[in-house]
Amino acid sequence: xxxxxxxxxxxxxxxxxxxxxxxxxxxxxxxxxxxxxxxxxxxxxxxxxxxxxxxxxxxxxxxxxxxxxxxxxxxxxxxxxxxxxxxxxxxxxxxxxxxxxxxxxxxxxxxxxxxxxxxxxxxxxxxxxxxxxxxxxxxxxxxxxxxxxxxxxxxxxxxxxxxxxxxxxxxxxxxxxxxxxxxxxxxxxxxxxxxxxxxxxxxxxxxxxxxxxxxxxxxxxxxxxxxxxxxxxxxxxxxxxxxxxxxxxxxxxxxxxxxxxxxxxxxxxxxxxxxxxxxxxxxxxxxxxxx
Length: 291
Description:
alpha/beta; Rossmann fold; 10 strands
């Protein structure tokens, strides 16, 4: 475990489904590496019209039982792992409360399962991206049940969007959290335009040089699609090829469809990847260039 005065805080939404418990175990492994602490939160969703059919006694009893169950889970996992784990209960819309709690506790990142009643799979469409887009911090979505003790390879897909520089900076940040793990860079070309292809290859070379200049082992590959595969499928296939432990994508807070990882591609990567996916929302202010 790394030494430091400030513990990094990880928020985990829990509904006691298998995948959210897997996300918790993944978060515990991460907390051990980064000297972090964990907060688990269960959100009791408002039932809207059906609220009038649920008595206040029933709601109070549900809250009490859930609070006790959360406290027990936090205590057991904390004792097993040696990681400090807090538990919380909240009421309201799930995506809103997750982000509110994250801001309230000063979380470094959110890690959540992508199935179960509180997972992202329930929210295909606007709510799926709301969890990610409305978060001010990175969100790691976990779908697979394979729990790994660490991370040794980050997959960094590149495009020509203005947020690429910020994505590279986040990849460096994450790599260094794990002690400088490898970053695999991949660019996917759907164009035959020689100018664009040259620009993409130049950018890829710049990124590799920059990563290596920061002391990070980095490799790259340039993929030309010739089989009509969708972007998400190409990224996921390449992630398996290089045995990536995490895929990093950039999303948007606004409904901007100019970035290749917005909309269906981002959603497909999040929903279909058995490998954890870190979604990073670009900050609204202008960044200092890193390349």
